[in-house]
Write a structure and sequence with these properties.
By secondary structure, the protein is α+β, with helices and mostly antiparallel strands. The chain has one domain: Ribosomal Protein S5, domain 2, CATH 3.30.230.70. The protein contains five helices and nine strands; from the N terminus they run ββββααβαββαββα. The strands form two sheets. The chain has a five-stranded mixed beta sheet. Strands 7-6-8-9 form a four-stranded antiparallel beta sheet, with helices on both faces. β6 and β7 form a beta hairpin. α2 packs across α3.
Length: about 240
């Protein structure tokens, strides 16, 4: 019989803790903890355009993602020593970038580039969802500094954004999978949603057993409930922006 750690119910998030302004070296940062998963998110502004946006007057938000070697039980080799970024890393950092850009006004801060660095210092499932949730907070803090410096007139976001995982194990639908659950899930999905309940991205795979429309609807509903909780926490940290 399936037993979740710490007696968690099927619809409960792991304990979530977000430490805002975690770093002193950049204007926007956060340490986000989903249970034992810990990710440092840091936003940095560079006064140069993305090459494909030169002379358009438009800014850009992009992301880089990495896992520290000791973040997993078996050491993960640094991708810099391999000489290339792996496919999983490419996929995750593109997802983070898309998710953050979806709620930003890229026309508001000129031809500048914002880098969101998401570094996993401890991995126990859900590193991409934690990166998006914490990355939004770091981004807003950077925008606050940009407003104080006169670079933008208003905080250039039109909604909140957060992400969460949902899976099916032993025919039970569970919210916010930790690694042990994720590794044996029959279905694994990641939902990225806005504060207004709109979808930015849905990633889903039947690892072992296909799922039907009813299960899909249940997973979608459960993810929405989890994201509502996460966005309420974001609002508590960065304030009401909309």
């Amino acid at each position: 019989m399936l037993q979740r750690s710490a007696g968690r119910k099927y619809n409960e998030l792991r304990p979530i803790n977000i430490t805002n302004n975690f770093l002193k070296t950049t204007a926007g940062s956060a340490l986000v903890e989903f249970g034992n998963t810990k990710v440092i998110c840091a936003a940095t502004l560079e006064d140069k355009p993305a090459p494909f946006l030169k002379n358009t007057g438009r800014g850009w938000v992009t992301a880089e993602y990495s896992m520290l070697p000791a973040s997993t039980q078996t050491r993960t080799a640094r991708e810099s020593t391999r000489g290339k970024v792996g496919g999983r890393t490419h996929e995750i950092q593109r997802l983070i970038g898309r998710s953050l850009r979806a709620v930003c006004d890229l026309n508001s801060f000129g031809e500048k580039t914002i880098y969101m660095d998401c570094d996993v210092i401890q991995a126990d499932g859900g590193t991409r969802t934690a990166s998006i949730t914490g990355g939004f907070i770091a981004l807003v803090e950077l925008f606050k500094k940009m407003k104080a410096d006169g670079i933008v007139k208003e905080i250039p976001v039109n909604d909140y954004v957060s992400a969460i995982s949902v899976g099916i194990i032993e025919n039970k639908i569970l919210l916010d999978l930790e690694y042990e659950e994720d590794s044996k899930a029959d279905v694994d999905m990641n939902f990225v949603m806005t504060g207004s309940g709109k979808f930015i991205e849905v990633q889903g795979t039947a690892e072992h057993v296909p799922f039907d429309k009813n299960q899909m609807h249940e997973m979608m509903t459960l993810a929405g409930q989890g994201i509502e909780e996460l966005i309420a926490l974001q609002k508590k940290i960065v304030g009401n922006l909309i």
